[in-house]
Amino acid sequence: MSFEFLKNRSNAIKVTILLLISIALISCETVSYYTQAARGQLAIVFGREDIQRLLADENLSPILRDKFNKVLQIREFSAQELLLPVDDNYLTYVDVEREHVVWNVFATPEFSTDPVNWCYPIAGCVSYRGYFSEPAATRYALQLEEDGFDVYTGGVDAYSTLGWFEDSLLSTVISREDYQLAGLIFHELAHQLTYVAGDTTFNESFASTVEREGLRRWLLSNGQAETIDVAALNQSRQQQFINLVIEYRDKFDALYEKEITETSKRSEKTLLQNQLRDEYQSLKQEWQGYAGYDGWFSMPLNNAQLSTVGSYNDLVPFFTDLLHQSNEDLAVFYAEVERIAGLSDVEREELLENWQ
Fold first, then answer.
1. pTM of the full predicted structure?
2. Of 192, 264, 288, 347, which has the most beta carbons under 10 Å away?
3. Residue 8 CB partners (closer than 8 Å, separation 6+)
């Protein structure tokens, strides 16, 4: 009996345990939802191919060979230089044979930008419900729309299993630039290092800080200092995009608080959506025509879509400052982050509010 078979069997048992816990603890969630989640994860587990074995195949395409070698280098750097919990993560490759690995469904009331939350074992409460099948996500989204919710469905190319399984390199991210792939791996490994169930802003801000610092060190070590400027430009554009959406989300919130008829609210809602699109066109001019967010702005811009652009990086300045206070020593930094993560919600919120 091969070691790989035993590992897959162990992972299958883990999926089964999670499925049973989920059904037992969350009676409002349907068995079918958790069944599809278990099947989706198992398909990834059993679809894995060992990267070293693939590299030994002389018929492997040059593009994949280059990416696989790069990922192995990124793994080594993550463990040795960034002190991240690499373990057996990203030693395998899975061709999921679809555009995205997961589709997340988001929902809000018609006149609110506050998202509906779903709660799960391990991950805690989050503002989306994920499906390994686009048709399944679409069906659930239609149910929510029939109940009067604003709904948005978005594809996800990678995710962390938070250490429950060895994460694989997926075909959905293989076409990314090397520095983007490195940033993604640093980010997802950071989630395995520290994760506070239900606190998305804390988790994403920490992972983003590790991603940015890790990417800076990775690029410098590979003599690609010029790419740091490229990454910084992309981060700046992303922040401008987030700021624009949050600014308009506040305007939508103000609209919904008005004591006017629902017909008037719908009319003004449409006007704000058009204004937001116009503001984006102005922003594109500042970006010399960069069109990275065109796809996002081609969507309805309803409340659910707006809710997906959270201020998830709000605490990046806090974590960056904490890293500086740690004299750039990642071991010291991680230990302090872990200490803060272990505080009660009230204690952690008080510490963050008193920062600076």
1. 0.86
2. 192
3. 45, 46, 48
